[in-house]
Design a protein that fits this description.
The complex is a heterotrimer of chains A (about 130), B (about 270) and C (about 300). By secondary structure, chain A is α+β, with helices and mostly antiparallel strands. Chain A contains two helices and nine strands; from the N terminus they run H-H-E-E-E-E-E-E-E-E-E. In chain A, a hairpin with a 3-residue loop joins strand 5 and strand 6. Chain C contains 14 helices and two strands; from the N terminus they run H-E-E-H-H-H-H-H-H-H-H-H-H-H-H-H. Chain C has a two-stranded antiparallel ribbon with strand order 1-2. The chains are: A alpha+beta (about 130), B mainly alpha (about 270), C mainly alpha (about 300). Chains in contact: A-B, B-C.
Chain lengths: ~130, ~270, ~300
């Protein structure tokens, strides 16, 4: 900002006016956020299933529940591949729960996963741990 | 004036500021952690904060729709307010027969609070067919006496010679207002905009009466409805509170001076 | 040689009429709005209060029936009493705000920050404020109960919003919290208008701080104090948002104000005529109390008498 405000050209005073600057910054932030969302909303939920000792478990059944008003309903199932990984591709909710189970090995707790927006692509950081019921 | 120690004043003011800000801090803390809704004793610092209650609120209630409704009604109110109040303020600077009667009328309208008129106002809006519409929501707020007097004071302060010179030059009344007086009344316009916007934004009783369908509700209504559906059993309610308060706080911090100046001058002239 | 006049001459009467028409045109929009939403509703309320009417039924003259029913209506008297208590709490807020204004107007750094912090509660949505305070007063997990129990003031948590005794004071406390900033701003403006040389002259004459306060500050603040009281009273009368969201009228009718009672009569029970009668009483009370306050503060809206 120049020392003499009267000599500032009109456009400069307009842009540095706080009533223009703050909404403009907000609009830019919202636009950037929307771009990010559009690039990452394919509904992909990926993760791993391990057993109590940390070994990957192939062919475990993974169930996805989505929030429906106040309860969770089952949406879809997937199976882990030989490396213990699973990929679900049709999640459209922002508040989901996952559980894995393999008869003979155990079942995992229902893990709640909360997303920043609907159908956010996410790779679970913690694997689902199968513990044997005893 | 002999010097007196400053630190007791600072201490007292800091204590008062603490009391004034604690509700905000508490709500903010709960909106990011969801604690203290069931658990006792409450924790002072947030443990494991997360922003997911805000996500819940965004998807659970049509926040964008309520926000849009509030914005449209408020913008409508502000636009009409500035135009109508400026016109009336200008008219009050001229001398005309029955001027004192009109002034008395305006002053007595100030004594009639909105709450004393809700039932007939509802009936009138119904007769006009404006129930459940943006215009119906905004119409009662299209003009306020306080702002008329603010404009009047601002116009009174314009030197007479300027207006006379413009008249001699042949400008019509309308052009006199827009080209000479309004640019000199920027403060009054800013005050009017801020006050009208905030009053319209926070208005709860009138939208409660006038809206019938769920998608015409404004933000305050949406918030009250959320409370009655969900009770206060979830952090999402407080996230909603913060989302509702944030625009008000941002607007206030931006336009502090205009707002305070407008209240002080409007109140003392009213 | 005749010079063409710069302004066309018109008969004086035509100019005056044109000017009057213009003025009325400019006044018209505001006047229509006030007519439609202040004056006609008030008169309609008066008419309704003397009638017996329901929507889709013809109106019948009913004399003072509505007022008679109001006289025997316990809820009405409770609401009236609660409203009066609410109004009586306004001076408390004003006194606190006066103290704050004196502190903030003294010569300290950062006074604008303090002013902003204290004022920020006023322009906020009352519904949100009500939700926050409703939760602060909560019996099990509210902050106020926690503080009271930590300081060993009470053993059991107090059911603030559910008790017949504590409900109204709780709502009043929330209201004062919100209005403090507003009162303080008005009083600050009034304080700034007091010429400092008055204080200096009094100090030279040997008046101590207390005498300076009572003899100079308070009398010169009378217009501002009167304004604060009127606005505080208006605010107490019309505190629908706060009461509706915080308690909905309170346990039983402990926090029912006239304004919430009018709303419930009109829009829950659809008794427009009875609600109109209560509204008229409400309005008359408002005008009366304002007039009384005007008289008590010396007339003329508390303006300082010039001698």
């Amino acid at each position: 900002m120049s020392a003499n405000p009267v000599e500032d050209p009109f456009w400069r005073r307009l842009v540095l006016n706080r009533f223009v600057l703050v909404p403009a910054l907000l609009a830019v932030a919202i636009a950037l956020w929307n771009v990010y969302v559009a690039a990452h909303d394919h509904g992909i939920v990926a993760g791993r299933v391990v057993d109590g000792a940390g070994r990957p478990v192939p062919d475990a059944a993974v169930v996805l529940w989505v929030l429906n008003f106040t309860t969770y309903v089952e949406k879809t199932r997937a199976t882990t591949d030989s490396a213990g990984r699973f990929v679900i591709t049709n999640n459209d909710s922002h508040n989901i729960r996952l559980a894995a189970e393999k008869p003979g090995v155990g079942r995992s707790a229902r893990v709640p996963v909360r997303l920043y927006f609907r159908a956010q692509d996410i790779e679970l950081r913690e694997p689902l741990i199968l513990l044997s019921a005893s | 004036m002999h010097r007196y120690p400053r630190w007791p004043i600072h201490l007292a003011l800091i204590g008062v500021s603490f009391l004034m800000l604690i509700p905000f801090y508490w709500v903010l803390k709960t909106s990011v952690t969801g604690e203290n809704i069931f658990a006792y004793p409450p924790s002072i610092l947030p443990k494991s904060p997360h922003p997911f209650y805000y996500v819940d609120v965004w998807y659970y209630i049509p926040f964008a729709r309520y926000f849009l409704n509030s914005i449209i009604v408020s913008l409508l109110t502000v636009a009409a307010n500035v135009v109508f109040n400026a016109m009336a303020g200008y008219a009050l600077t001229r001398d005309f027969p029955a001027k004192s009667f009109v002034l008395l009328l305006f002053l007595s309208c100030m004594m009639v609070p909105f709450q004393a008129t809700i039932i007939p106002a509802y009936l009138i809006t119904g007769r006009l067919g404006l129930l459940d519409s943006y215009l119906g929501l905004a119409l009662p707020q299209f003009s306020t006496i306080v702002c008329i007097f603010v404009f009047k004071a601002s116009f009174d302060a314009v030197p007479r010679s300027l207006i006379d010179a413009a008249r001699i030059d042949g400008l019509s009344e309308w052009r006199i207002i827009w080209q000479i007086m309004m640019p000199l009344a920027k403060g009054a316009i800013a005050t009017n905009v801020i006050l009208a916007f905030i009053w319209s934004w926070n208005n709860f009783l009138w939208p409660l009466i006038v809206t019938r369908s769920a998608d015409m509700q404004t933000l305050p209504l949406g918030l009250a409805r959320f409370l009655s559906y969900q009770e206060d059993t979830t952090g999402a309610l407080y996230a909603f509170c913060i989302m509702v308060l944030a625009p008000g706080i941002v607007l206030f911090l931006l336009a502090q001076n205009e707002f305070i100046r407008g209240l002080a001058s409007g109140a003392t002239k009213g | 040689m005749a010079v063409a006049p710069a302004v066309t001459y018109r008969p004086q009467r035509l100019v005056r009429t044109r000017r009057a028409v213009l003025v009325w045109c400019f006044l018209a929009p505001s006047l229509i709005i006030f007519l439609l939403y202040r004056i006609i509703p008030l008169l309609w309320n008066v008419a309704l209060s003397f009638a017996d009417w329901a929507p889709l039924r013809p109106m019948r003259w009913a004399g003072f029936d509505q007022y008679e029913e109001m006289f025997y209506d316990e809820v009405f008297w409770q609401a009236l009493w609660n409203t009066l208590l609410f109004i009586a709490s306004a001076p408390l807020g004003i006194v606190i705000a006066l103290g704050l204004a004196l502190l903030v107007s003294s010569d300290i750094r950062g006074r604008n920050v303090y002013r902003t912090i204290i004022f920020i509660s006023y322009p906020l949505m009352t519904v949100a404020v009500a939700i926050i305070w409703r939760w602060l007063f909560e019996e099990r997990v509210g902050l106020i109960n926690y503080v009271a129990r930590s300081l060993h003031l009470v053993d059991q948590p107090i059911q603030f919003l559910n008790s017949f005794f504590w409900a109204l004071p709780s709502v009043i406390a929330a209201n004062i919290w919100q209005m403090l900033g507003f009162y303080m701003i008005i009083l600050l403006t009034g304080l700034q208008n007091i010429p400092p040389n008055l204080y200096e002259a009094a100090a030279i004459d040997g008046a101590d701080a207390r005498r300076r306060f009572w003899r100079i500050t308070v009398p010169l603040l009378k217009p501002s104090l009167f304004l604060c009281f009127v606005i505080g009273m208006l605010n107490s009368f019309t505190s629908f948002d706060l009461v509706y969201v915080m308690t909905g009228g309170g346990p039983g009718r402990a926090t029912e104000l006239l304004v919430t009672y009018i709303y419930k009569l009109g829009f829950s029970q659809t008794r427009f005529d009875y609600a109109a009668a209560v509204t008229i009483v409400f309005f008359v009370m408002l005008v009366t109390i304002t007039w009384m306050a005007n008289r008590l503060s010396g007339g003329n809206a508390g303006a300082v008498e010039k001698d």
